[in-house]
Amino acid sequence: MGKLTWVFFVVLLFLTGCSQQDEVHDPLALHRAVLSGEMLFIPDVYLDFKYTSAGDESALIQMWYPGSNPVPGDPQELWRQGEWYQNVRLLLTNNKTIRNGANILQGQIDLQSADLLVGNEYGLAHYAQSDPHYAIFKDDLYIEDRENGSYIRCTKKQTADDPVSLCKHKFGIGKMSFSITYDKRLLPDWKIIKTNVVAMYESFKAPDTARAYIQQFYPDNEIQGG
Predict the structure, then answer these.
(1) Which residues are CB-contacts of 117 (< 8 A; sequence separation ≥ 6)?
(2) pTM of the complete model
Protein backbone atom coordinates (compact mmCIF):
# COMPACT_ATOMS: atom_id res chain seq x y z
CA MET A 1 0.00 0.00 0.00
CA GLY A 2 1.53 3.29 -1.12
CA LYS A 3 1.95 6.51 0.78
CA LEU A 4 -1.07 8.10 -0.93
CA THR A 5 -3.32 5.21 0.16
CA TRP A 6 -2.07 5.49 3.75
CA VAL A 7 -2.71 9.25 3.80
CA PHE A 8 -6.24 8.66 2.49
CA PHE A 9 -6.91 6.05 5.20
CA VAL A 10 -5.70 8.37 7.98
CA VAL A 11 -7.76 11.28 6.64
CA LEU A 12 -10.80 9.01 6.37
CA LEU A 13 -10.48 8.00 10.02
CA PHE A 14 -10.07 11.64 11.03
CA LEU A 15 -13.20 12.62 9.12
CA THR A 16 -15.03 9.68 10.66
CA GLY A 17 -14.19 10.87 14.16
CA CYS A 18 -14.96 14.50 13.38
CA SER A 19 -18.31 13.64 11.83
CA GLN A 20 -19.85 12.91 15.19
CA GLN A 21 -22.01 15.56 16.79
CA ASP A 22 -21.61 16.99 20.26
CA GLU A 23 -25.23 16.44 21.23
CA VAL A 24 -26.45 13.56 23.37
CA HIS A 25 -27.85 10.62 21.38
CA ASP A 26 -30.15 7.85 22.51
CA PRO A 27 -28.10 4.64 22.18
CA LEU A 28 -31.28 2.56 22.30
CA ALA A 29 -32.73 4.04 19.09
CA LEU A 30 -32.83 1.36 16.38
CA HIS A 31 -32.50 1.37 12.59
CA ARG A 32 -34.36 -1.36 10.70
CA ALA A 33 -32.72 -3.11 7.75
CA VAL A 34 -33.54 -6.31 5.85
CA LEU A 35 -30.47 -8.31 4.86
CA SER A 36 -30.44 -11.84 3.46
CA GLY A 37 -34.18 -12.03 4.05
CA GLU A 38 -34.07 -11.25 7.76
CA MET A 39 -35.00 -8.12 9.63
CA LEU A 40 -32.15 -6.59 11.62
CA PHE A 41 -32.49 -3.93 14.31
CA ILE A 42 -29.22 -1.99 14.36
CA PRO A 43 -28.65 0.57 17.15
CA ASP A 44 -28.11 4.02 15.70
CA VAL A 45 -24.83 4.40 17.61
CA TYR A 46 -23.19 2.05 15.10
CA LEU A 47 -24.34 4.22 12.18
CA ASP A 48 -23.61 7.68 13.60
CA PHE A 49 -20.30 7.98 11.76
CA LYS A 50 -19.38 9.27 8.32
CA TYR A 51 -19.76 6.68 5.54
CA THR A 52 -21.78 4.24 7.66
CA SER A 53 -25.12 3.04 6.28
CA ALA A 54 -27.63 0.21 6.32
CA GLY A 55 -29.86 -0.75 3.41
CA ASP A 56 -31.40 -3.75 1.65
CA GLU A 57 -28.14 -5.13 0.25
CA SER A 58 -25.52 -4.30 2.86
CA ALA A 59 -24.72 -2.53 6.13
CA LEU A 60 -21.47 -0.75 7.02
CA ILE A 61 -21.06 -0.44 10.79
CA GLN A 62 -18.42 1.52 12.72
CA MET A 63 -16.91 0.46 16.03
CA TRP A 64 -13.95 1.62 18.08
CA TYR A 65 -12.16 -1.62 18.95
CA PRO A 66 -14.83 -3.95 20.32
CA GLY A 67 -12.39 -5.85 22.49
CA SER A 68 -14.53 -5.03 25.50
CA ASN A 69 -16.89 -2.32 24.26
CA PRO A 70 -18.59 -1.99 20.86
CA VAL A 71 -18.19 1.81 20.71
CA PRO A 72 -15.81 2.78 23.52
CA GLY A 73 -15.05 6.39 24.28
CA ASP A 74 -14.63 9.41 22.07
CA PRO A 75 -12.82 8.78 18.74
CA GLN A 76 -11.34 12.26 18.87
CA GLU A 77 -9.82 11.37 22.23
CA LEU A 78 -8.29 8.28 20.62
CA TRP A 79 -6.67 10.61 18.10
CA ARG A 80 -5.26 12.78 20.86
CA GLN A 81 -3.86 9.70 22.58
CA GLY A 82 -2.28 8.44 19.36
CA GLU A 83 -4.55 5.39 19.31
CA TRP A 84 -6.60 6.31 16.23
CA TYR A 85 -5.87 2.85 14.76
CA GLN A 86 -8.25 1.22 17.24
CA ASN A 87 -10.93 1.45 14.60
CA VAL A 88 -12.99 -1.54 13.44
CA ARG A 89 -15.51 -1.60 10.62
CA LEU A 90 -17.97 -4.34 9.78
CA LEU A 91 -19.50 -4.80 6.32
CA LEU A 92 -22.50 -7.13 6.23
CA THR A 93 -23.46 -8.23 2.71
CA ASN A 94 -26.69 -9.79 1.56
CA ASN A 95 -26.16 -13.02 -0.40
CA LYS A 96 -28.86 -14.81 -2.39
CA THR A 97 -27.37 -18.20 -1.56
CA ILE A 98 -25.11 -19.64 1.13
CA ARG A 99 -21.52 -18.79 0.13
CA ASN A 100 -19.15 -21.57 -0.89
CA GLY A 101 -16.41 -20.59 1.52
CA ALA A 102 -13.86 -23.16 0.39
CA ASN A 103 -14.08 -22.00 -3.24
CA ILE A 104 -13.87 -18.35 -2.21
CA LEU A 105 -10.77 -19.05 -0.14
CA GLN A 106 -9.09 -20.97 -2.98
CA GLY A 107 -9.80 -18.06 -5.28
CA GLN A 108 -8.01 -15.73 -2.85
CA ILE A 109 -5.06 -18.11 -2.53
CA ASP A 110 -4.71 -18.12 -6.33
CA LEU A 111 -5.22 -14.35 -6.63
CA GLN A 112 -2.59 -13.56 -4.00
CA SER A 113 -0.21 -16.33 -5.16
CA ALA A 114 -0.11 -17.36 -1.48
CA ASP A 115 1.58 -20.75 -1.88
CA LEU A 116 4.14 -20.54 0.93
CA LEU A 117 3.22 -21.62 4.46
CA VAL A 118 5.12 -19.23 6.73
CA GLY A 119 3.88 -20.85 9.92
CA ASN A 120 1.22 -20.59 12.60
CA GLU A 121 0.57 -17.10 13.96
CA TYR A 122 -2.10 -16.24 16.53
CA GLY A 123 -3.80 -19.58 15.82
CA LEU A 124 -3.95 -18.87 12.07
CA ALA A 125 -2.07 -20.52 9.18
CA HIS A 126 -0.01 -17.70 7.64
CA TYR A 127 0.55 -17.98 3.87
CA ALA A 128 2.73 -15.69 1.74
CA GLN A 129 4.33 -15.80 -1.72
CA SER A 130 7.28 -18.03 -2.58
CA ASP A 131 8.00 -15.88 -5.65
CA PRO A 132 9.80 -12.67 -4.52
CA HIS A 133 8.28 -10.77 -7.44
CA TYR A 134 4.74 -11.41 -6.22
CA ALA A 135 5.70 -10.92 -2.57
CA ILE A 136 6.31 -7.21 -3.24
CA PHE A 137 2.73 -6.27 -4.06
CA LYS A 138 0.48 -9.21 -3.12
CA ASP A 139 -1.29 -9.62 0.22
CA ASP A 140 -0.64 -12.27 2.87
CA LEU A 141 -3.40 -14.65 3.96
CA TYR A 142 -4.09 -15.90 7.48
CA ILE A 143 -6.39 -18.91 7.22
CA GLU A 144 -8.75 -19.67 10.09
CA ASP A 145 -10.85 -22.47 8.56
CA ARG A 146 -10.33 -23.89 5.07
CA GLU A 147 -13.61 -25.80 4.92
CA ASN A 148 -15.72 -22.78 5.83
CA GLY A 149 -13.48 -20.38 3.92
CA SER A 150 -12.75 -18.11 6.89
CA TYR A 151 -9.56 -16.13 6.33
CA ILE A 152 -7.88 -12.78 7.00
CA ARG A 153 -6.15 -10.90 4.19
CA CYS A 154 -3.52 -8.32 5.22
CA THR A 155 -1.72 -5.75 3.13
CA LYS A 156 2.00 -5.19 3.56
CA LYS A 157 4.22 -2.24 4.38
CA GLN A 158 6.25 -1.47 1.29
CA THR A 159 8.18 1.63 2.34
CA ALA A 160 9.08 3.48 5.53
CA ASP A 161 6.49 6.09 4.55
CA ASP A 162 3.77 3.44 4.47
CA PRO A 163 3.26 2.52 8.15
CA VAL A 164 -0.29 1.20 7.89
CA SER A 165 -1.16 -2.40 7.06
CA LEU A 166 -4.85 -3.25 6.93
CA CYS A 167 -6.50 -6.60 7.54
CA LYS A 168 -9.89 -7.87 6.38
CA HIS A 169 -11.42 -10.88 8.10
CA LYS A 170 -13.87 -12.61 5.72
CA PHE A 171 -16.32 -15.33 6.69
CA GLY A 172 -19.99 -16.22 6.41
CA ILE A 173 -22.90 -17.19 8.63
CA GLY A 174 -25.74 -18.70 6.61
CA LYS A 175 -26.44 -16.31 3.72
CA MET A 176 -24.71 -13.39 5.45
CA SER A 177 -21.16 -12.45 4.48
CA PHE A 178 -18.97 -10.69 7.04
CA SER A 179 -15.98 -8.48 6.31
CA ILE A 180 -14.26 -7.02 9.40
CA THR A 181 -11.58 -4.42 8.65
CA TYR A 182 -8.94 -3.16 11.09
CA ASP A 183 -5.32 -2.10 11.44
CA LYS A 184 -2.88 -5.02 11.41
CA ARG A 185 -1.76 -4.05 14.91
CA LEU A 186 -5.05 -5.53 16.08
CA LEU A 187 -4.44 -8.87 14.33
CA PRO A 188 -3.32 -10.64 17.56
CA ASP A 189 -6.84 -9.95 18.89
CA TRP A 190 -8.63 -11.27 15.80
CA LYS A 191 -10.46 -13.99 17.72
CA ILE A 192 -12.02 -11.76 20.36
CA ILE A 193 -12.87 -9.17 17.73
CA LYS A 194 -14.69 -11.81 15.67
CA THR A 195 -16.43 -13.25 18.74
CA ASN A 196 -17.75 -9.86 19.82
CA VAL A 197 -18.73 -8.81 16.30
CA VAL A 198 -20.76 -12.02 15.87
CA ALA A 199 -22.39 -11.51 19.28
CA MET A 200 -23.25 -7.96 18.27
CA TYR A 201 -24.73 -9.20 14.97
CA GLU A 202 -26.80 -11.87 16.75
CA SER A 203 -28.22 -9.18 19.03
CA PHE A 204 -29.56 -7.32 15.97
CA LYS A 205 -32.13 -10.04 15.29
CA ALA A 206 -34.77 -8.63 17.68
CA PRO A 207 -35.42 -5.19 19.18
CA ASP A 208 -35.19 -6.42 22.77
CA THR A 209 -31.85 -8.18 22.29
CA ALA A 210 -30.42 -5.26 20.30
CA ARG A 211 -31.30 -2.84 23.10
CA ALA A 212 -30.14 -5.21 25.83
CA TYR A 213 -26.78 -5.73 24.14
CA ILE A 214 -26.03 -2.04 23.66
CA GLN A 215 -27.41 -1.02 27.05
CA GLN A 216 -24.84 -3.11 28.89
CA PHE A 217 -22.25 -0.60 27.68
CA TYR A 218 -24.41 2.48 28.31
CA PRO A 219 -26.30 1.75 31.57
CA ASP A 220 -27.23 5.42 31.97
CA ASN A 221 -28.98 5.26 28.59
CA GLU A 222 -27.00 8.11 27.08
CA ILE A 223 -23.68 8.73 25.36
CA GLN A 224 -21.87 11.80 24.14
CA GLY A 225 -21.17 12.35 20.46
CA GLY A 226 -21.91 8.84 19.26
Answers:
(1) 125, 126, 127
(2) 0.80
CA diameter of the chain: 56
pLDDT in tens, the chain (226 residues): 454 444 444 444 444 444 444 444 565 789 999 887 889 999 888 887 777 888 888 999 888 766 556 565 566 766 777 777 778 889 999 877 777 889 999 999 999 999 999 999 999 999 999 999 998 889 999 999 999 999 999 998 766 666 678 999 999 998 899 999 999 989 999 999 999 899 999 999 999 999 888 887 766 654 443 3
Alpha-carbon distance of 48 to 58, in angstroms, equals: 16
Give Cα separations from 214 to 26, 69, 115 (angstroms).
11, 9, 42
Number of Cβ within a 10 Å radius of residue 188? 12
